[in-house]
Structures are given as structure tokens and as C-alpha cells.
Batch of 2 targets.
Target 1
Amino acid sequence: MAGMNMRKAPAIVILGAGSLATAQRIQQLYPQATLHGLRGRVEAVDSLYESFGETLRGLYQQDTPIIALCAAGIVIRTLASLLSEKDVEPPVLAVAEDGSAVVPLLGGLGGVNLMAREIGEALGVAPAITTSGELRFGTCLLNPPEGYTLADLEQGKRFVSDLLAGQSVRIEGDAPWLAQAQLPADAHAQRTIHVGYQARPDHRDELLIHSRSVLVAVSATQSDLTTEVRAALAEANIAEQALACLLASEQDMAAPALHQAARVLDVPLRFTAPADSLQSMVAHVVPEAQTLAVSNVVIAATPAPIEVAKVGRVRGRLAVIGLGPGAAELMVPAVKAELARAEDVLGYETYVRMAGPFRADQVLHCTDNREEMQRARHAFELAASGRSVVVVSSGDPGVFAMAAAVLEALHESSDPAWHRVDLEILPGVSASLATAAQAGAPLGHDFCVMSLSDNLKPWSIIEKRLDLAAQADLVLAFYNPISKSRPTQLGVALDIVRRHRQGQTPVVLGRDIGRPGQTLRVVTLAELQPEMVDMRTMVLIGSSLTCTFARDGGGQWVYTPRWYGEKP
Ligand code: SAH
């Protein structure tokens, strides 16, 4: 999201209970912030971590602003190895445990001094600001507020040194945020701060700041949209950095060409109802905009920066995500990122809770596990209205879970708004894979995955498939092996398997794998009793070649060799 000036919610990281009170005061200032505490030392935080170093580096790499309540030295040493990798870094601050000192460390261009001032004010202390330009002028000239962007950082640095060396300056254009700054102003100064959307040649005497006040309306049928937009801006002498967003008809919402252009130009894409011309589309969403150029695209500008969130509407998103078995380390990073951007979260209550913690602005829709189609339709309704929606499943969403229900709901729908939603399925570690990994490699050769639940399929087909899969000597992975309403079926299923497998066949039982209180048992098919299994258990039954051997430290390794027949 570079260039969009969106500040992510900060992370407040504490080491012990001694800093909890200060952390909570900072959290009142940034209600979106998540509070991270060291496991075993603190409770009542949003997230518990095991390793301070890994947590801090992870946050830094994800561009999350960091407020660490500990010695500045600890923060510096922890992040040191990463510092040279980044040209734009998130704000990083060290705050004394008792709130008596606020030290901005990194992220001068990401607004760290602004945060230091805000936190200093909330804690009643003066922030330790050391940036000379900032101290002298009361603002960082190189970090204009949202809606404005610096044309050239290097040129900006030279300009600020000139001012620090005693040059005076005047402002051309509208720079409301500089009204209270203590600049060495002089109406006849040679140096100027120029604010506007026009492209201008580099000039040593000028600090050029672009206002993001330009909008370009496009249609998806244009062949090379990015080139077209760039050419039109150049023709009209408008800086590309002044572009606030692209506007298109909502009929074209899913057109890849539009999304490609928005990605390359690094601007948001907004949509409005189709109209007879691009110009009337612009007039409809930004009535105050003045048309600057009309070609295959229409360029329009407003006097002040455009508030993109108010221009038409955004394309809604629906992500069907898999949480993995439970442990946070087994959740894929794409899923974590999706949860962070979600506005609405739908799912069975247990899984929604597992996906948390959530921020106060995120809406949770918890439903019963059986209302899958209804949940899928609700998700599309929300996403079609422009929301960013997440549907959660445990494990992988495509394995006996929500992804198929969501696609079925879409398949059945003739609502174009549903089909335009940005739909993505994000995988997770399925229970069979998580269980297998803990046992060794029981799924190391061909295997068959089945749900033993006959809620959505006839029992006769389950019997038939069990019989054929067992006959084919596939390793068997059973999901939903048993439940209170189906107490006897597992016994019947095992009878079928035993017709084809020997009594010493290894069986792995994984219960609550990746969750608190997880258990892993290895038994033989002869020993296996339905009472050893419940609905939170994964059952893996070996093939004729699956074998076990003692594991140093206790228990057994289970694996199925990669070859079949005679050992090669
Ligand atoms: N989508 C899920 C499966 C949902 S079906 C996945 O990919 O894992 C629910 C069944 O999965 C349960 O009855 C149980 O058999 C199995 N299961 C889910 N999570 C589990 C876990 N953490 N440990 C063991 N089995 C689990």
C-alpha cells in the first residue's frame, strides 16, 4: 500500500506486567492498536508471544508501527540486522515502562515524530525528538500529511539543509498543514515550497509537494490502460504522484485490466454506476471536480486532496480462509494478513474465536456450524456491498469446510454484484496433514481422504468408498469420524476396513492437534475401538506398507514408504 499514506494500526509490545498500565494508556490513544505481551509474564493482552526478538522483527517486516515499552537499546539491537534492508520503515518508538520517556527511534518519514508527540502528550512528557528540521520548523517538511506527497526525497533533503543553513522560504499553492509551522518565511524568498498537481522540472530552489487531487476515469476495454493513463497525464502536464485514484464503471469491477493498471500506478480503484460517458461518471461521484482533459480517459482535479474513501465505492472482497489446526505458527501468513484487513468475519463461533483477537471495528458474525449455505450467502451480501469479508474454517477451507459452500452459493446466484466480488480462497494446514506431521509420515504414499459424516451424503456411499479404498490399499484419513448423533457408524466403518487390512496395521489418532491439550496416539487396527475416537479426532489408518519404529525419547515414528511393492 506504499504511496497511499495509510498508517497501519500500531503494535504495543511489553515484556512484563510492570509496563501494562502505561501500555493501556497508549492503547486508549490508539484504540486500534494490538497489545502484545510475553507469555507467562502478562495476561490481559491481545496477543501473547514467546520470543521478543522474533515478534519485533516480524512486526517491523510487516511495516507495523512499533511502540516497545523497554530500553531503547534493546529495540535497536533487536532490529539492527534488518535496518539496512528497508528504504521506507515503519515508525518505531521506545517508551519507558513507567511512561516517563518517549523516544522516536526509526521511521522519520513514516511519521514517528508525530506519534512521539501524540504519545508524549497522552503521557504528559516531552518526546525526545532529535530530528533537526523537525525541531526547528515544528514539522517534518519531508513527511507531508495524508493527501500530499513529496515529489523527490533526495531533493527534499537538500532543500531542508538549505533552510537549516539559513535560507528563507515562501509557499506557492495551498499548504494548510504548514500554517502553524515555524518556517523562515519571506514573501520575496528565492526558495519556494510548491504545492500542486502539476508536473514541474526538478529545481534546487524548490520543494515540490504534490496534492493527491487528480482522478482519472477509465474504461476496462482500453488495451494498455497503464500506458494510456500515463500518456494522458503527461499530455496534460500532471504529475503521476498527484493521482489519487482511478474511477471505473461497476460493471467492469472484475476486469483484470483495471486492477493491473491500479496496481502498477499504485492507486486505489473506485467504482460508480455506469453512465453514458466517463465525464458524467466523474460528475456523479465528485461534483466539485473540474475536467482537465478528455481523451480515451478523463482527467479531473479538485481544489483539495481527494478523499478517496468518499469517491463512489470500492470492490468488495470475500476471502475464504483456513486457520490451520489451531496453533498460530501453523497459520499461513496470507491468512494472517487477510484477517488483519477484514471488516466482517463470519464462521462457526469456535473458529471465529480461534481466529482472534479482533479489533473493536471488526464485526463478528458467529453462527451455528450447520448453517453453511446461509452463512455463504450472507458473506456475499456483505462483500457485494463493498465490505472486506472473511469466512473462516479450521484447517483448510476446501476440505469438508466453507469454500465449497461459498462457491455453490455463487454458482446458484444470478446477482451480478455477487459475481463481481473479489473472491479468493486461502489455504490452510488441514487436520490430516497436521496430524500426519506429528506422527512422522503416515501419508507418505497414496492416500484417501474421507469424511465419515452422513449428514450430506448417504451412508451407503460411505460404505462403498471405504470398501474400495481399503481394497486399493490406500492409507485412509477419516475426518468427522464419529459424533454423538452417529455413535455406531465408526464401528461399522472399521469392520469394512478390517476385511482388507491386517490387525497390526498402524493407526494414528490425533486429537485437538495444534490446540491446547493435544494428544497423539499410535495403536494397531486390532486395538482400535470407537471409544478412543471423538469428533475432535483425526484417524489415519495405514496401508499394508505403513510401519512404525521406536522414537528416541518415547513413542513411535509412523511412516509409509514412498515406494510400493518390492523395496527398490
Ligand atoms: N477443514 C478442516 C476439517 C473440517 S471437518 C480441516 O481441513 O482440517 C472436522 C473434522 O476435522 C473433525 O471432526 C476432526 O476429525 C478433524 N479435525 C479438525 N481439526 C482437528 C484438530 N485440530 N485435530 C484433530 N482433528 C481435527
Target 2
Amino acid sequence: MSNNYQPHLENDKRLAQISQKVFSSNRIDNEEAVYLFEKASLPLLGILANFVREAKHGDLTYFNRNFHLEPTNVCLYTCTFCSYSRLIKKRSEGWEYTLEDMMDIVKSYDGKPVTEVHIVGGVLPQYDTAFYQGLFSAIKAHRPDLHVKALTPVEYHYMFKKDKISYEEGMKLMKEAGLDSLPGGGAEIFHPEIRDKIAGGKCSGDQWLRIHEIWHEMGGKSNATMLYGHIETYEHRVHHLDLLRQLQDKTGGFQTFIPLKFRNKDNEMSHLTEVNLVEDLRNYAISRIYLDNFDHIKAYWPMISREVAQMSLSFGVDDVDGTIDDTTKIYTMAGAEEQNPAMSTEDLVNLIRRVGRRPIERDTLYNTIKDYSEEVFEADIAFKPYIELPVMN
Ligand code: V47
Ligand code: SF4
């Protein structure tokens, strides 16, 4: 047998150069990002992404306690990846909450240590600007310290257009009513070639970015997502990341990037095979390496499973979404790993600690609420993190 094995990087000078850039904290360009998607091995991506992650946060791993409020699971739009869009044909089988219904849900969390409500759902005409002003101000009147992270440019674009008000005016009204930050939803894939096919009719990529820009200019913070693993190419993913990185250079208003893996249950793209775990980890890693101006990369654990969330912490992720009752239906209907996605704080803290990281409970704006590094739970006393191997004499 000939011994012609050469270490990976020596075989590929370009990968060596890109790695050198990452280790010297220099930005990689779009061609380099596509090259990483096409050529880099999983271990190399892990090393590079972990370098960036640890330079920013060391072992710190964030989570917060939030709950979801979904005004409706029916939607006017017909995004081909979404399991809600099919419900418009059978509207009576869905729910359409009134303001009172939603306040009852908010009140059901009274006395529970949640810090954030994440409001997201389908788009329907009755949910107009005045409706959401009413909802946000009612939440704030009831529980002023609850952070309202609500709606996406998809809803804002629709309602402001219908109500004939500009984005600037509309976002100002929302802020006055109690809106605290914007979640990352509705971004999907910005490139029109793909967006028109999977999310035709709803706000364009430019409109999505413009609403976030206006919000940032008003001093607000927001998140961004990317829906991957369907009909997009690596170039489309990099184009999406590029537009986010450019806007972040301009405003600095994004906090967190959340890659969302396409799930194929009960939607118009059910014929597509979902991408596998390796692709998920590669995508987290390249997002972490490319988005050098984003502080955080988040894994949405109910979507990808607890084990993959744990692995993602070695591939650039420093934040795992949500604890206690994670009540969103948008993923469970699309075939997410966790059909009943609830995890106690203790479970989530242990999930993070068992892969050697340091759990930090945060609020929405990443202020530390509690450092759980030293906390000892009952279950830990019996738990042995590694298998004890027999000692050889
Ligand atoms: O925009 C819909 C996605 C998003 C499917 O900001 C699907 O903290 C996969 O953006 N397969 C809404 N994804 C949720 C969202 C989010 C989630 C967690 C945290 C934050 C945050 C934001 O859900 C939609 C769409 O991209 N989605 N259907 C599906 N079949
Ligand atoms: Fe409606 Fe959003 Fe689903 Fe598109 S992704 S159909 S806008 S709920």
C-alpha cells in the first residue's frame, strides 16, 4: 500500500488560504463561502466555526424563556414550504384568535418567569395596524416588563399597504404601541429566482431588508433567518448571507442569525427530501464563519432535535432558543423533530453543560439574567458525563 496520504489542507491551497483568513479574523468573500460549502470537510468547518464562536463568546451558551403567541394558523399567502398556507382552503379547521383570546393566553403565563412573547402566525385581513396596536398596548398594560418580539416584514408590509401608511409611519406606530423587537421570520431566501417560486406574492427580499433597516434606524434590534435545504443552491444561500452582512455593516441592528431547516411534512414541497444532519452542521458553521458582524448564531432546538442542537454548539452556534412551553405550531405542523417541544430550564441547562458549554439565561437583548455554570441540580449528582473505561495495568 502506498503511503501518499496528505493532510486535507495541503491538498487544497485555497482551503488553506481561507482558513488562514478566518484564523486572522479577516472576512471571507462570497466565492470563498461557496467554496467552503462545496469543498470543505465537516471537521475543518467545525474547527473554523468554533474558532469564531469561541473568540466571540468562549464557552458561553445563551437561552431565554419565551412563549409563542400565534394569532392564527390560516394564511392568505401560499408559500410552498408552509403547512399553514393549505389551511386557507379549509379555514374552519384553523383558529383565528380575537384580542381577548390572545390576552387570555398572555395571562395564562402570569406568575411564570418568562421574559419574552414571540408573536408570529399567518396573515389575514382582520389583523391590521389598529389590531396589532391594540394587542401590543394591551400586553404592555398587563405586563410591562414582558418583551414583545413580534411579526415580520411579511405582516408589516401587508398591513401598512392595506392601511395606506408608509413603512416609517407604520413602524413608529408599532413602537409607540409597545413593540420591542423584530423576530427573524419571513426572510426565507432573498434571491428572487427562488423567492418567487417558494414565497410568491409576499414581501420581496428588498422590502424585508428595508423594514429591518427602518427599525434599526429607530434604534431597534432584530433577528434574521434563512430557510435552507429546499430548491436553493449554495450561491443563493451566500447571496442571502451577503445581503444580511451588508445591512448589518450599515446599521448594526441585527442580534442573531437563525438558520431554519426546511421540513417537508404536509406542504407543497413534501416531495423534497430533507437535508441531513451533516448539511445542517455545515450550514451552521459557514453561517458563523461568513457573518463575522453578527454576534450570535441560534439553533432552534424544537426543529432540529435536542441532540443536533447539542452538536451545533461545536459548529458555531452559541444560542439555543426557548425553554419551558414552546408553543409554536408552525414547525410541529411541518414535521419538526419535537412534536411537544417543552423543556424545563433544568433540562436545557443540562443539555448545554453535557457538551462542555456554560449556560447563560439571557433576556431578549442578551443581558445576563443568570449564569448557570455552578448550579447543581439533583439529577447531576447521579450523572456521569463520560463512560469510565477500565484501567489497564
Ligand atoms: O419565516 C415555515 C419558517 C419562519 C417551515 O427570531 C418553516 O428568534 C421550516 O422566523 N420548514 C417563522 N421552516 C419562525 C421564525 C423564528 C423561529 C425561531 C426564532 C426566531 C427568532 C424566529 O418559519 C418562517 C419560515 O421561514 N417555516 N414553514 C417549514 N416547513
Ligand atoms: Fe403565510 Fe408565513 Fe406560511 Fe407564508 S410562511 S404561508 S406568509 S404563514
